[in-house]
Amino acid sequence: MTDETTASSQRKTPTSLIAAAWIVVCIPLAWGVYNTALGAAKLFTHLHANPPAQVKAP
User: What proportions of the chain, in percent to the nearest 5, are helix, strand and coil?
Assistant: First the structure.
C-alpha cells in the first residue's frame, strides 16, 4: 500500500462531532468544579464567620 492509498482510505471525524463531545464532557465537569469550590469556600469561611466563644478562666 502506498501513502496515497492509506491517506485516502482513512476517514476524518467531523469537527462538529468533536465539539459536541467536548461540550458533553465539559458542562458536567464545570458544574462539579463549581460545586466543589462552593463547598470548599463554605468550609474555609465558616471558621472566620463564627469564631469560637471565648472561655473565661475562673
Answer: 70, 0, 30
On whether the pTM is more than 0.70, the answer is no
Please enumerate in sequence order all residues whose Cβ is within 8 A of that of 43, keeping only pairs 6 or more positions apart, or say none. none
Whether 8 has a pLDDT exceeding 70, the answer reads no
Grid coordinates representing 52 are: 469560637
End-to-end CA distance of the chain: 93
Q: Taking residues 27-38, report their average pLDDT.
A: 97
Q: What is the 3-state secondary structure (H, E, C) of 1-26?
A: CCHHHHHHHCCCCCHHHHHHHHHHHH
